[in-house]
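Section 5.1 Outputs to date
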Amino acid sequence: VVNAGERVTFQAVGYWCSGGIKDDGSASCGGPEGIRVPNDVEAASSPLPGALIGTLVGRVGEWVFTIGGGAQVTAQADGELRLLMNDGVNYADNSGTVEVRLTFP
């Protein structure tokens, strides 16, 4: 749980696959920084439509923000912090592991 105004630092490492393919025909896999531009269907149903598919994002209520491989943010809302990969509504074909370290300076 975070409170509005609280600072949180994130560090993320790992490897994740969305189950899709890149424009070059290769597997759509990569790190928490993101792996490819979303198609229209994915963008319409992802938490952050303008961010790359596979980018690690955080959510507190309606506030959604990019973390990628690391970020320091100041919470814009009170509530439960959730972490997820930016992807369309179908997570069934996803695989991999991303580890995230949080610090509260």
